[in-house]
Design a protein that fits this description.
The protein has 214 residues and is of the alpha/beta class. Helix content is 27%, strand content 21%. It is built from seven helices and seven strands, in the order ααββαββαβααβαβ. Helix 4 links the parallel strand 4 and strand 5 (134-144).
Length: 214
């Protein structure tokens, strides 16, 4: 899998650091999505393990009753990350400028990415880094809905249907030798598109693409 140069383009190509300079203390998906994600984390994550929350914010949607050995956070807004009570440590880095993570090889039991994969311009490099930092048997969980900052999503994502976006993330995993065949969890919304876009409760579809390091 190799994205073409035009597929990596964003409508707003100004510095991402400027766009994310001000904190947004909101949730970008509805409560139904968040509950499904928390339930998925409860099912797939193990307590007292090391977790990397990639492209995180002020909340990680992890089960409150689960404790972890270490939770490393990453994102583009330090104020949001500082507000996240689950993070033991965090760092700010623009993966579109530098996808190389300042983290050791095979150091994490899980890598999480919630509603942010649509902004990654070099997913081949980023998913290679996810693989590198995962322990053998470690899991990567990429979750998303149909919401986005449209001007900051890459063209390949903006122009795709939900089903095509699922296939895109599966292809990101498949581009890195050593990941298991990606598993998909898809719960489509039953609300009309207009009500989804208006943010009606229960309107956000839930998608998760999951793979393990062999």
């Amino acid at each position: 899998m190799q994205l073409r140069p035009n597929q990596r383009l964003k409508l707003d190509d100004t510095d991402d650091n400027l766009f994310y300079a001000y904190p947004r203390f909101v949730t970008h998906v509805d409560e139904g999505f968040i509950q499904q994600l928390t339930d998925l984390y409860r099912d797939r994550l193990k307590p007292n393990t090391r977790i990397f929350d990639m492209m995180s914010s002020w909340v990680s949607h992890l089960p409150e009753e689960m404790q972890f050995a270490h939770l490393e956070g990453h994102g583009l807004n330090g104020e949001e990350l500082a507000r996240n009570p689950r993070l033991n440590h965090y760092f700010v880095q623009n993966l579109n400028e530098n996808p190389q993570l300042p983290l050791p090889d095979e150091d994490f039991d899980a890598v999480l990415n919630c509603v942010s994969v649509q902004y990654v311009q070099y997913p081949e490099a980023v998913f290679s880094e996810i693989y590198r930092i995962l322990k053998p048997g470690g899991v990567a969980i990429i979750s998303f809905s149909n919401r986005m900052f449209f001007e900051k999503a890459i063209q390949a994502w903006r122009e795709a249907t939900d089903a095509q976006r699922v296939e895109l993330v599966k292809a990101y995993f498949a581009s890195v030798p050593g990941f298991t065949t990606a598993e998909v969890i898809a719960h489509k919304s039953t609300l009309p598109n207009l009500l989804q876009w208006l943010g009606a409760a229960g309107g956000d579809p839930f998608y998760a693409v999951i793979a393990y390091r062999n």
